[in-house]
Amino acid sequence: MSTTSGVFATEPVRVVAVSAGLSSPSSTRLLAERLAGAARERLLAEQDRPVEVRVIELRDLAVDIANHLVTGFPPATLDTAIKEVAEADGLIAVSPVFTASYSGLFKSFFDLIDNTALTGKPVVIAATGGTARHSLVLEHAMRPLFAYLRATVVPTSVYAASEDWGSSGDEYTDGLPSRVRRAGGELAAMITGGRAVSGAPRTVGLDDEVVPFEQQLADLRLD
Q: Is the peptide bond prior to 75 cis by the omega test (within 30 degrees of 0)?
């Protein structure tokens, strides 16, 4: 095996989690970390490459994001975060719910991502909120956003209301830990196999047809 091939064989799998939580400590950050941990555990079990996990806290980049939107020039720290998202093998995107949608900080950051940078990239979408009433934000707001960016969003989206923390669910409903493991496993499967859980190819070209949101929603199990 050539030296070049050996380098590629040992290059780590990179998983980046973006958290738009504003408080510290933050349930949004905690959910991002748990999803990243679930994906990392599955990746380590299913392939031989090392796994690197990076959590990006948008609250630490808020001023830089605002300046970039005004000037068009990202400071070094923000530029690094944008590149890490674009170069990740898998992405986890988590936002608190504000006014029945993702937060402005979350949207502002992804407005700075080139609209082709996430093409075909496996993504887990997740959100946190006070009550379960806001869980449809995942399907009505976040999934269409990443469909526009041409990412490949895993089937399981994860919403965590206040009462979900510490809950293991019941005979009819999966608890938060189960949903986190399932979403992390789906992300890992897409990364290692290059295919969606359904078996459809994950590689998406710029000229590919985007599946209408209504059709996507009909095929999903809402969490």
A: no
